[in-house]
Design goal:
Layout (H helix, E strand, L loop, with lengths): L2 E4 L1 H7 L9 H13 L3 E4 L1 H12 L4 H19 L5 E3 L5 H16 L4 H16 L5 E4 L9 E2 L2
Parallel strand pairs: 1-2, 1-4, 2-3
Antiparallel strand pairs: 4-5
Helix pairs in contact: 1-3, 3-4, 3-6, 5-6
């Protein structure tokens, strides 16, 4: 069974965030297939926060409100175990201190702190699940490379 980390670009499409929903139909089809194939879907906290930020910056107030309500509903369902994905646990302080040490070099390569935390969660899942495929599901070309097949 595959472990799949859901990136912000995917979550924005699923929630129909205005200006961030470039490929909704393909994402919905991908979600249906992943659910059918019984993939373990993980929603990194960074993707939750980034998606919320994108929603807060929607220009149209009615669209912003509607997207925010969809967001709250989906994140709440995930935290209550009622969604097809679960929110990843919050990392402890020692992890963050290590990630902060890595951030300046990553920033120079254009890797945001949110993407860095998703990459670190990917690496954690790889270590916890050596016999399973672990991948980041994204529309972002930089994160597409994170797909380990054992």
């Amino acid at each position: 069974m595959t472990i799949c980390l859901v990136d912000t670009s995917i979550f924005c499409n699923l929630l129909e965030v205005p200006g961030r929903c470039q490929d909704k139909q393909a994402v919905l089809e991908g979600l249906e297939q992943k659910i059918h194939d019984r993939w373990s879907l993980l929603l990194p906290l960074a993707a939750v926060i980034e998606t919320g930020n994108h929603i807060a910056h929607c220009a149209n107030g009615a669209n912003r409100r509607s997207a925010a309500e969809r967001f709250v509903r989906q994140v709440r369902m995930a935290m209550e175990g009622k969604a097809p994905w679960v929110v990843t646990p919050i990392s402890d302080t020692s992890d963050w201190l290590s990630w902060l040490d890595d951030f300046p070099d990553n920033a120079m390569r254009g890797v945001s702190i949110a993407d860095l935390t998703i990459i670190k969660e990917y690496e954690r899942q790889c270590a916890l699940n050596p016999a399973r495929r672990v991948m980041v599901w994204t529309l972002d070309g930089d994160l597409n490379a994170y797909d380990r097949v054992p």
